[in-house]
Every structure is written in C-alpha cells, then in structure tokens.
Amino acid sequence: MTLPNEDVMELLQERFIVGARNIDKEGHVGLSHGYRPDQTAVGTTNGAGGRNVQLLVLAADDTVIHALPGFWHAPDLLVELRLALEVYRLHINERLSSASKLAMFEALHRAHMRRHLDGAQTRGEWQHFDRSFELERAEKETRDTVHTVAGGPKALKSIPQIVHERLLARPFKRQAEFGMDAFVDYGRPFYDNNLGHDDGRSFPRAAQANRTREREQQKEQDKAARAAAKAAKKDKSAKLTAGDRGW
Fold first, then answer.
1. pLDDT at 121
2. 3-state SS of 117-181?
3. Between the CA of residue 57 and those of 64, 69, 196, what are the distances in Å?
4. Which residues have CB under 8 Å from 79's CB, separation 6+?
5. Residue with more model confidence, 242 or 56
6. What is the model's pTM?
7. Which of 54, 101, 156, 230 has the fewest CB atoms within 10 Å, i.e. the most exposed one?
8. pLDDT in tens, 14-67
9. What is the predicted pLDDT for the residue at 244?
10. Predicted confidence (pLDDT) per residue in 82-102, tens digit
11. What residues have CB less than 8 Å from 59, skipping those under 6 apart?
12. What is the CA radius of gyration of the chain?
C-alpha cells in the first residue's frame, strides 16, 4: 500500500488511527501463485491486487468513508486520504440533512476526479492478465469496468475511475453493507505475475485453497445457524413454560 512513504506516514500518524485485519478467509480474497504474504510489491499500478489487500477509512460508527483496493502510488494515496478527511468531516456534520450530505458527497468525488484522475489513471493502467480477462468477461455480461468508444469496441476504464464510480454508488454505507465482494470484482481472481505473461494457467492450488476456505466458511455459517435455531427454540420453550404458569 506504499505506506513507507514519509509523506503518507506523516499524514496517517497525524490524522488517522491505523489498524489491520487479516482478510485471508474473506470470500472476495483472490490468491496469487508464487508469492508469500511478506513479499513486497514493486513497480505495479494503482489498484493492482485489489482482491488481496484493501485500505478502508472508517468512522467510529463503522461507516465506510473511503476504500482503496490494492496497491496505490504515494502521490495518489495522499490525495485519496485527504479526500477521505473531507468526506469524514461531511459525515459528522450534524447541521446538514441526509439529502445535503449525499449531494455534497457526490460533488466531492466529482471534483476530486476532475482534479486528480488524469495522473492516477496514468499510474492505474490494467495489468495485462487482468485486462484480457476483464475484456473477455465484458463480452459475456454487463460490466461497469468498460465503456464503448464511439464507433469502436469496448474499452476498459482506468481502475481509479472504477473505484470512484463504485464509491459513488455506496455513499456512507456501514462496513457490513458495503459489499466488498462486488467492490473489488475486477480482473483475474488468480494470477502469477512471476511468469511475465498470461498463459491461461488454471492455478489448481489456488483454486483448491479457495474451495477449502469456502468449506470452512460454510461450516462456520452452519454452526452459527444451528446455534441461532437452538437459541430460538430455547426461547420459545421458555415463553411456553411461562405461559403455562400464568406469568
């Protein structure tokens, strides 16, 4: 996430409370072949690896103020964090109505995109394997990642543009309602950047790891559902007993 940059670190230290959470078992997380979690991304582009790492700016009430998937270059990360501070001030402003906040939220993002998107787009080009995968997908289904050039074929929007358009569709959402799965849904879920090219590998180890993770998640969900059903049954039984006793 380019956090070692001095300017980024200074802004984070002065204006944010920084924390981290392991998202390895989240359903939206992709897997890469040939990398360890402690390795450093070098020379990549804004938004690359969006399934594997996300930077969220949250308010105290768990409202998502801003979200940045993947790697971001320091100059772009700085302006995004400053935008987050503006959105946060808007969020906590008790003098404004909900309608006014929504209108100003959109205005902030539109103005930000006009001022900063050109540079971020240049540094936000798609990686080749993500590009080919996304264009192929856009031929089969409707995707918000593409636009149609007049008289020409579909072309990919830059990842920074996609990020801001998706943020505009999620104003002041709580984290549980934000929909991270859809927010980071672009490009390939599995890839191997060590290859230097996309050879259409199926990544069986990554696929197996995801299947194992999905089974574990299903077990946890089933366990929670059983516990909830048991609690509901116990509560119903208690109410029936109370009724029999005339309470």
1. 72
2. HHHHHHCCCCCHHHHHHHHHHHCCCCCCCEEECCCCCEEECCHHHHHHHHHHCCCCCEHHHHCHH
3. 6, 12, 33
4. 112, 116, 120
5. 56
6. 0.74
7. 230
8. 999 999 888 877 777 776 655 555 666 556 788 888 888 899 999 999 999 999
9. 60
10. 999 999 999 999 999 999 999
11. 65, 88, 91, 92
12. 22
Strand segments (E) across the chain: 31-32, 54-58, 64-69, 146-148, 154-156, 190-191
Alpha-carbon distance of 41 to 39, in angstroms, equals 7
- Strand 190-191 with 146-148, pairing: unpaired
Encoding tokens for residue 65? Answer: 């103020």
Beta bridge partners of 56: 67
Domain residues of the chain, as ranges?
Answer: 6-125+160-199, 202-247
In this structure, which amino acid lies at residue 124? G
Q: Identity (one letter) of the amino acid at 109?
A: H
Using left for φ > 0, alpha for ψ between -120 and 50, and beta otherwise, residue 80 falls in alpha
* Contact assessment for residue 192 and residue 33, using Cβ atoms and an 8 Å cutoff: yes
Asked whether residue 209 carries a pLDDT value surpassing 80, the answer given is no
